[in-house]
Write a structure and sequence with these properties.
Blueprint (H helix, E strand, L loop, with lengths): L1 H23 L2 H35 L7 H28 L30 H18 L2 H40 L8 H27 L4 H4 L3 H10 L6 H10 L5 H14 L2 H19 L5 H17 L6 H5 L1 H8 L3 H44 L1
Helix pairs in contact: 1-5, 1-15, 2-4, 2-5, 2-12, 3-6, 3-10, 3-11, 3-12, 3-15, 5-15, 6-11, 6-15, 8-9, 8-15, 9-10, 10-15, 11-15, 12-14
Length: 388
């Protein structure tokens, strides 16, 4: 999640600048800003299928056709944890968001002037096509042990990473500023203050989900998971500062090694693996923010059917997301647009608000890895007993 570590100030400045400009801009200025938004958005959304291919396909290919049951088990519980956290977030949002009395501007917004000029840059393929192609390429590469193809996918991943770093990230603050200028021109931006209590609610949800994960780990392993969790405070607070699972990895490993119920060899395998595939806190946050953003901008939350499809696919994206600067939100941007139906304003708001709490989502991800490591250890012990 390097984008949020390096660029959160830029995003916040872009947000503030956009609001100021939008409140004082004339219709002619807004016409120019609309063009800037349209072109920058086209470039960003053109890159979305490439991001999907560049990060999902190599992640699947690296499993290899002879991947052990332990690795498959680790991927499975990481996926279930992210998906479970997402559905927990949906259930919570359906109960809490209506109580927040979020006022939508649907039907009351100022009419926007015509765009000065626009440039259409259609993506090379749809989001769903990119996802399916990524899955098939990854599986085919793993099944056939195609080492050359695996290296090509890894090189393509590096190419996409550079495109994101040198093109997407510099454009992102411009896109955010343009969207917030338009939102400010259209109505009352004070309603965005609703996200402050929402962030606090999300953090509480993180703690509830961690408690549930460690409870499940205790039941599955037959061991007291508190002897893992009580050592994870340094990793949690390190993640708050770094906003990066990778940057926190050394501290997380040290925390796992201090536990008297975790085997060091299992921790050395599991903790680095989960740092790259387990994003329960980030997924939980994104889903809750989608509900609030949708209610705020469009007057209603997504339906359960929409959420179900989005979450099941989001769990796959979360496995490949750590390689993407910006993590879950940027990796799943195509799903947010194609399935949830967010427009430019919705995606800009979601990206910016997600940045404000990213450190807490990362801390939840890292701390949850301890619970999953305990489950992997229990699974390995049972597997070894069966093989005897």
């Amino acid at each position: 999640m390097k984008i949020l570590n390096n660029s959160i100030v830029k995003l916040l400045l872009a947000l503030a600048l956009g609001i100021v400009i939008g409140q004082f801009a004339s219709a002619d200025i807004i016409r120019i800003i609309l063009s800037i938004k349209q072109i920058s958005g086209q470039i960003i959304f053109f890159l979305v299928p490439l991001i999907i291919l560049g990060f999902v396909a190599p992640s699947i290919a690296q499993l290899k056709s002879n991947a052990s049951r332990i690795i498959l088990f680790a991927f499975g519980i990481a996926y279930l944890s992210s998906v479970g956290a997402a559905f927990f977030s949906v259930a919570t949002s359906y109960q809490i968001v209506p109580l927040l009395n979020i006022q939508s501007n649907v039907g009351n917004a100022v009419t926007l002037p015509e765009v000065l000029f626009q440039l259409d840059i259609p993506p090379v393929m749809s989001v769903i096509s990119a996802l399916l192609l990524a899955v098939f390429l990854g599986l085919g590469t793993a099944w056939t042990k195609a080492d050359l193809m695996e290296r090509l996918l890894q090189q393509f991943q590096q190419i996409v990473l550079k495109l994101v770093t040198y093109i997407l990230l510099p454009i992102l603050p411009i896109f955010v500023a343009a969207n917030f200028a338009i939102l400010a021109y259209q109505g009352d931006v004070a309603r965005f203050g609703i996200f402050l209590p929402v962030i606090l609610i999300v953090i509480v949800c993180h703690y509830i989900w961690l408690a549930l994960l460690y409870g499940i780990a205790a039941l599955y392993s037959g061991k007291n998971s508190w002897h893992v969790l009580r050592h994870y405070a340094p990793a949690y607070f390190t993640a708050l500062g770094t906003m990066s699972s990778a940057a926190t990895l050394g501290v997380a490993l040290d925390c796992a090694h201090k536990s008297d119920v975790l085997d060091k060899k299992v921790a050395d395998f599991s903790v680095p693996l989960f740092a790259n595939i387990h994003l329960c806190g980030s997924v939980l946050t994104e889903v809750f923010f989608i509900a609030v953003t949708s209610q705020l901008l469009y007057g209603q939350m997504p339906t359960m059917g929409t959420y179900t499809l989005f979450i099941l696919l989001l769990g796959i994206f979360a496995i490949g997301a750590p390689g993407v600067p910006g993590g879950t939100v940027l990796a799943s941007l195509g799903l947010v647009i194609s399935i949830v139906g967010f427009d430019d304003a919705g995606t800009a708001l979601l990206i910016t608000i997600f940045a404000l709490q990213d450190s807490f989502g990362t801390a939840c991800n890292v701390t949850g890895d301890g619970a999953l490591t305990l489950m992997v250890q229990a699974f390995e012990n049972r597997k070894n007993k069966k093989d005897l």
